[in-house]
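Q: What structure does this chain adopt?
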Amino acid sequence: MLKSMQSPMEKNTSRMNFLGYGVYSAAMNMAMDEAMAAESASTGNSFLRFYDFERPSIILCEFDSIDCLRLDNIDGIDITRRKSGGRPLYLSDNSISYSVSMHLDNADSWANSLHEVHMKFGGLVADAIAKVSGIDRNELTLPRTSSIRFKGRSLAGHAQHLSPGKSLLYQGLIVIEPWDVQAIDRMWHLEREDLDMIAELPSIRSIARRQLGSSDEIKRELIEAITASLSHGNLVGTEKREKDSLLESAETLAKETYANNGWVLSSTPSRVHKAPFCMLWEENQTPKQRQ
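A:
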């Protein structure tokens, strides 16, 4: 039986800087995460933010080929590539995303294990999901390294990245409303069986056992619940000067990397072709220790 997890911040003497909620382009969102991780490595401070996307967006992982997409059908869609592993993501109004960064000196030995990092952070996010949706916490499971599942199907997905400067980045999304399967079919090379499975994936709306408001109201409730779980009372607002500095760094990273076609559109043989949709990834690998 899964139990509520101790907050990663509970024994952390550094502050957790809350960057709030923002809406950015796909490239800028990935750049903000990298800027957060670099700042954590430099200062020892931790950061938490929630975000959405200006337009429907596809985020490939480091090892995906652009060929997994139907390139003739992606007009008006932002595309970028993240530096963490996993599988391709489709981001639209039906989900909310969040990221946490912290220096490894504040994480003890558990940060050396993909599985333990997910148990720490994912367990607390699962607590928040149960609270907002009104379901029993024991109905949510956390297999291996990335997902939070309801009845065996992914409700939330995560990726992790360890920076050279020794900071940890944990990125996630929670599905609020059902997936737009027709939109995904237009953009992805997926089998009919995959599309049928996507249609059956859970959302906060579909599993809820209490009356819920609009999508925006659900997002606000999740932000409040996750923030309370992760920060353990150490949350502080980020000073405008510090946030502006992060935004400036992110703008440079977005231009140089995440909006750079040389990085985003790579289709080298070493990259995975016809990669499955992220929320369908079967987590059957053995948990690994970081090298």
